[in-house]
Amino acid sequence: MCLAVPMKIVKLTGTDAVVELGGVQRPVNLTLISDSEIKTGDYVIVHAGFAIQKLDSADAEERLKLLQEMLELS
Prior knowledge:
Layout lengths: L4 E9 L2 E6 L2 E6 L13 E5 L2 E6 L1 H17 L1
Antiparallel strand pairs: 1-2, 1-4, 2-3, 4-5
């Protein structure tokens, strides 16, 4: 099973970014997202080192809440 996770962009450099979740930062590539208005503070869905979709903050926070609830059940 593959899992794509919402992460917040903390740094942008061209088509690359650094994203963060729970204090962990990872580099990601943004070339798969067609939205040219990506900025620091935006949330993106990350899978295998690529941002695959931009999310609004309310949607990202809801998804993160659901993921946390799933972790608490296991």
